[in-house]
Amino acid sequence: MAETKKYITKEDLEKHNNPGDLWISIQGKIYNVTDWSKDHPGGVSPLLHLAGQDVTDAFVAYHPGTAWQYLDKFFTGYHLKDYSVSETSKDYRRLVAEFSKLGFEKKGHIAFITLVSMVMLLALSVYGVLCSNSTWVHLISGGLMGFMWIQSGWIGHDSGHYQVMMSRRFNRLAQILSGNCLAGISIAWWKWNHNTHHIACNSLDFDPDLQHMPFFAVSSKFFSSITSYFYERKMNFDCAARFLVSYQHLTFYPVMCFARINLFAQSISLLLSKRRVANRGQEILGVLVFWIWYPFLVSCLPNWGERVMFVAASFSVTRIQHVQFCLNHFSSSVYLGLLIANDWFENQTKGTLDITCSSWMDWFHGGLQFQMEHHLFPRLPRVKLRKVSPFVRELCKKHNLPYDSASFWNANELTFKTLRAAALQARDLSNPIPKNLVWEAVNTHG
Questions:
Q1: What is the pLDDT of residues 245-289, one digit of tens each?
Q2: 346, 365, 364: which is closest to 354 by C-alpha?
Q3: What confidence tens digit (pLDDT) does each residue in 152-168 have?
Q4: Which of 53, 102, 244, 433: CA 20 to 30 A from 362?
Q5: Is Acetylation among the key words of this record (predicted)?
Q6: pTM to 2 decimals?
Q7: pLDDT-derived band of residue 189, with 50, 70 and 90 as boundaries?
Q8: Structural domains in the chain?
Q9: What is the rounded CA–CA span in Å between residue 135 and residue 160?
């Protein structure tokens, strides 16, 4: 006699969405991932954000085909009642399967090329500091250090999304070397931050990549002092924040010169916190290596003027990368609350802007100029993103979804306008600081 399936409703599933009770649905089957969440390679944040929903599209996006075999041990025996799949999701899953079948997940030589370029840039920078007495050479060496950090960011980003090396052990080594040792940024912090960004793309209260109060606010909704669920604190829109935000369109590029300091601070804060950090010892040791070699190299310069100049040059060059991170999302649609997992494709397209450029610029942009493609297919190596772009554009057209793209300069203009619009609203001193979201919604200008 065939076993009768047991069903639960969507409303019942939604109740299992807290740290001690995490249930998810994949293709209509219900899984309890509560105990396993602490061992999840992507961290607990993605599971917390998507718990209580059907997460099939997110699972397909982030996991290789081999991951399906491990699901059965988490199966509760329940199925989701009235489970259905939208036409958009069907097409999206079909694309994922097709790309996998065509071998688009093969890495190629991009990691090797990036690592070689990093070694060359680092060697030239060190050589310029140690073997030249020219102030101009020292200035150029600082710039080369900045370009090395940009490339280390790309290899750290790629190795965090998929395996760029031949084995997991070497992939981990690439992460620690490129992130912690050479750039001073904890790969553990980056994974925690970046995975949350992908899952909650452009959510004002969940996406850390939009939460830059008191310096920047991309939406007047921040004026209601909303709570950051990533940082677990209230982002107060007080008098100081109002003043800084009022001029944010003018201070944006100068502040980006020092954005790296924030990454250093965030990394150290996480590693010294009580939060669970995988391989904490490795992470701390890697960051310590950076804080030994980089200050020592700077100290080899002949005077304090040139030391400040070297550091300023290295930080200013990496500003390009920090600006690009903002261009992809600052001028796109934003929302409050969690992502609705069933609208995975729709949400990723609405909150993302591609940067159009020639193929010879791919090395410079690290593949993230195809931000929409990267968000939809995060496991694809960057060298494949240009190839899949036409398929994404066609799918967006078919389902009447936005495929927003702009040149690098136009994207900067859009970001400037977004920041200026919010700045002018913040500068309207005739209005008091909003007390709640209802007040803000009624009184928002523009």
A1: 999 999 999 999 999 999 999 999 999 998 888 889 999 999 999
A2: 365
A3: 999 988 888 877 887 88
A4: 102
A5: no
A6: 0.88
A7: very high
A8: 6-84 (3.10.120.10), 109-339 (no CATH)
A9: 38
Q: How many whole angstroms separate alpha carbon 96 and alpha carbon 406? A: 25
pLDDT for the residue numbered 3: 60
Phi and psi (nearest 5°) for 369?
-70, -25
Instruction: Name the strand (E) or helix (H) holding 80.
Output: strand 75-80
Burial class (CB in 10 A: 0-12, 13-18, 19+), 63: middle
Altogether, the residues listed in the chain come to a count of 446
Helices (H), 102-256: 110-131, 135-161, 168-175, 182-183, 187-199, 239-246, 248-256
Dist CA 174 CA 197 (whole Å): 22
The one-letter code for the residue type at 400 is N
Whose structure tokens read 């280390």? 152
Going by their DSSP bridges, the two strands 17-18 and 21-26 should be labelled as antiparallel
Q: Could you give the CA distance from residue 146 to residue 311 in angstroms, rounded to a whole number? A: 9
Q: What is the SS3 assignment for 156?
A: helix
Q: How far separated are the first and last CA of the chain, in Å rounded?
A: 65
